[in-house]
Amino acid sequence: MDEEALSQKSRIRVSALSIAAGLFILGMKYYAFYISHSAALKSDAIESVVNVVAAVFALGAIIFAGKPADREHPYGHGKIEHFSAAFEGGMISLAAVLIGYEAVHSLVDRPPLEHLGKGMAINFAAGVLNGVLGLYLIHNGKKQRSAALVADGHHVMSDFYTTVGLGCALLLVQFTGWLWLDAIIALAVGALLAWTGFKLVRSSSAALLDTEDPDLLDKLVAAINRIRPKDILAIHELRTLRSGRYIHVDIHMVVPEFYGIAQSHDLADAFAKAVVREAGIEGELHTHVDPCQRSLCDHCAVEPCPIRRQSQERTQPITTEEAVAAGPV
Q1: Domain count of the fold of the chain
Q2: Digit-coded pLDDT (tens) for 19-48
């Protein structure tokens, strides 16, 4: 079995584990709410429902994203992972609305709290499991370059932080007897979730719209500067397109104008493979060759050159601003 197939199996295994763990944690949190009748604990349980639904959707997205590129999807199916992350953000926002409704209802009716200490203990234990699960998902998502797993992991970690904050606040309810504070805490949880959902939808939308990724561009330019041969005089019009873990890169490279077609092709092909390998990305780099037009003689080290106008006077690394510029620099 090749490396890509093993990687896909690993992503599916991690996602399936997320679903199983999410169901177990959900059971713990709902039991904590059931014995305590706490609106704050109920809000935490509602968020866990979202975790499970989002994890199921993420698993489907990962399976679909693993399909190879075809004629209808020449860049592969990876963008479905960004749809998954956007869906998860929407689910989080929906959970925030539901939590807000339940909190207001509890604030009006003020049901009596029972066994709050035991409920808090069970909920805190579930929160610790969530923290471990969240770190596991983020680590494996980055390792496997899966946007769906990383988004799921950040969501689970936000649930962990919520549980910790909620537990501290409920201790205040326990010691002061201010039962109305329980509903206020639930409202605060809802507001925090709404903000988390908004940020997740915003970042996913940026990926779906192919918004420029400055970190990726800097990474590519750094790799180019490390391995650039002397006969690639400059680069420009560097563009990237991310489809899940797969990255497509377009670039124009300037070579000595006296190079023949075959020599320029071989140079471009070797350079493209070297950049992908040096940058450590999963994807492809397509090059377009431009002639130097004798405009870069002052920092060209190619010898012998039959068309040189002046001797080499300087060498300098390529900057990101030069790399993304619309024309030769």
Answers
A1: 2
A2: 888 899 889 988 988 888 877 787 778 778
Residue ending a domain, among 175, 208, 241, is 208
Which of 36 and 4 is assigned the larger pLDDT?
36
Distance of alpha carbon 220 from alpha carbon 238, whole angstroms? 9
Beta bridge partners of 254: 234, 290
**Res 321 pLDDT > 50:** yes
Same domain? 202 vs 230: no
8 A C-beta contact, residue 84 and residue 151: yes
Domain that holds residue 218: 214-324
Looking at the structure, do residues 137 and 239 belong to the same domain, yes or no? Answer: no
pLDDT in tens, 45-71: 877 887 788 778 777 777 777 777 777
Write the secondary structure of the chain as one string of H (helix), E (strand) and C (coil). CCHHHHHHHHHHHHHHHHHHHHHHHHHHHHHHHHHHCCHHHHHHHHHHHHHHHHHHHHHHHHHHHCCCCCCCCCCCCCCHHHHHHHHHHHHHHHHHHHHHHHHHHHHHHCCCCCCHHHHHHHHHHHHHHHHHHHHHHHHHHHHCCCHHHHHHHHHHHHHHHHHHHHHHHHHHHHHHCCCHHHHHHHHHHHHHHHHHHHHHHHHHHHHHCCCCCHHHHHHHHHHHHHHCCCCCCEEEEEEEEEECCEEEEEEEEEECCCCCHHHHHHHHHHHHHHHHHHHCCCEEEEEEEEECCCCCHHHCCCCCCCCCCCCCCCCCCCCHHHHHCCCCC
pLDDT, tens digit, 9 for 90 and up, residues 169-227: 777 777 777 767 767 777 777 787 788 778 878 877 777 777 778 888 899 999 999 98
Is residue 119 within 8 Å of 126, Cβ to Cβ? no
Q: What is the dihedral of CA 72, 144, 192, 200, to 10 degrees?
A: -20
